[in-house]
Amino acid sequence: MSDEDWREVIDTNLGGTFHTCRAAARGMMKRRAGTIVNISSIVGLHGNPDRRILGVQGGDHRVYEGARAGARVRGVRANVVAPGTSTPG
Questions:
Q1: How far is CA 40 from the centre of its chain?
Q2: Is residue 88 part of a domain?
Q3: pLDDT digit string (tens) for 19-65?
Q4: pTM for this entry
Q5: Is 32 exposed, middle or buried (0-12, 13-18, 19+ CB in 10 A)?
């Protein structure tokens, strides 16, 4: 993977999550109510040798944890759904 491809993956996965959560949370925190639900992948938590690039999504979980901690004190819930992968069998 080239450096340029790597930056694109990081900007899309982590940057996209951060900017979207921040934009959504602003109004919710003003209202002191709301829920942010993000979608990630179980591969981000446990890894998978066939899907290494999805491991970047592990960083998404750290973004969610930060959002959850900051938003909770203002009445906003933040959660992540991390579905598993299917394997042919």
A1: 6
A2: no
A3: 888 898 889 989 999 998 888 777 666 655 555 555 566 676 677 77
A4: 0.64
A5: exposed
